[in-house]
From TrEMBL:
CDD domains xref list: SQR_TypeC_CybS
Domain of life: Eukaryota
Subcellular location as annotated: Mitochondrion inner membrane
Source organism per UniProt: Scheffersomyces stipitis (strain ATCC 58785 / CBS 6054 / NBRC 10063 / NRRL Y-11545) (Yeast)
Keywords recorded for this protein, A-Z: Iron, Membrane, Metal-binding, Mitochondrion, Mitochondrion inner membrane, Oxidoreductase, Transit peptide, Transmembrane, Transmembrane helix, Transport
Keyword Transmembrane applies: yes
Binding of a ubiquinone, residues: Y121
Coiled coil: none
Name of the protein in question: Succinate dehydrogenase [ubiquinone] cytochrome b small subunit
Biological process per Gene Ontology, one example term: tricarboxylic acid cycle
GO MF entries: heme binding; metal ion binding; oxidoreductase activity; protein transmembrane transporter activity; ubiquinone binding
GO cellular component: TIM22 mitochondrial import inner membrane insertion complex
SUPFAM superfamilies registered for this protein in UniProt: Fumarate reductase respiratory complex transmembrane subunits
Length: 169
C-alpha cells in the first residue's frame, strides 16, 4: 500500500521530487515544427550602406581562389585551351594526353564560369544558405562530370573523337 503524506503527496514524491522529473529551465531540443528561418533572405540596409562616412574602410579578407587571382586563372585556362583545341585537327593525330588535359580544362573553365555567376547573382551576404547550396551543388556536378571525362577517355577514344563523330554524322 502506498502511504500518503498529506493530501497530495505520496511516498514516491518524497523519494523523487517532481522538480527532478520535469526541470523548468531546460529548453526543448527536439521539435516537430520545422524551422525555415535559415532559408530566408538576410535583410540588407538600402544600397548596402553600412556605417557612416567617418567609419574606417574594412579591407575584405583575401581569398586566392575567389579574388583577383580567380580572373587570372580563368584567362590562363582560356588561352591554354586554344592551341590544345586546334592540335588534333591541324596535326591529324589524336594524342590521348592532350585530349585528357583539354577535357579537364574545359570542365574547370565551365566550373569557374558558373561559380562566377553564383557569386554575382546569389551573393552570400544576401542569400546565405542558398549561395552555399548552389556552390556545393556546382562542385558535386563538377566531380560527377570529371568522372564522365574519365569514362570518355578510358572507354571511348576521347573527347576529340566524340566531337569528330558528331561533326561527321
Amino acid at each position: 500500500m502506498l502511504h500518503t503524506l498529506g493530501s497530495t503527496r505520496t511516498a514516491f514524491s518524497v523519494i523523487k521530487p517532481v522538480s527532478l522529473l520535469r526541470p523548468t529551465g531546460v529548453a526543448r531540443f527536439i521539435s516537430l515544427k520545422p524551422d525555415f528561418s535559415r532559408f530566408k533572405k538576410t535583410e540588407q540596409p538600402p544600397g548596402y550602406i553600412v556605417g557612416t562616412v567617418n567609419d574606417a574602410y574594412r579591407i575584405p579578407l583575401v581569398t586566392y581562389y575567389e579574388g583577383s587571382y580567380h580572373w587570372t586563372y580563368e584567362r590562363a585556362i582560356a588561352i591554354t585551351m586554344v592551341p590544345l583545341m586546334m592540335t588534333p585537327f591541324v596535326a591529324g593525330v589524336e594524342y590521348p594526353m592532350i585530349d585528357a588535359v583539354f577535357s579537364s580544362l574545359v570542365l574547370f573553365h565551365c566550373h569557374c564560369g558558373f561559380k562566377s555567376c553564383i557569386i554575382d547573382y546569389i551573393p552570400e551576404r544576401v542569400y546565405g544558405f542558398w549561395h552555399r547550396a548552389a556552390t556545393r551543388l556546382l562542385t558535386l556536378g563538377s566531380f560527377v562530370s570529371l568522372y564522365g571525362v574519365y569514362l570518355i577517355e578510358t572507354e571511348g577514344n576521347g573527347l576529340f573523337d566524340l566531337l569528330k563523330n558528331i561533326w561527321m554524322a
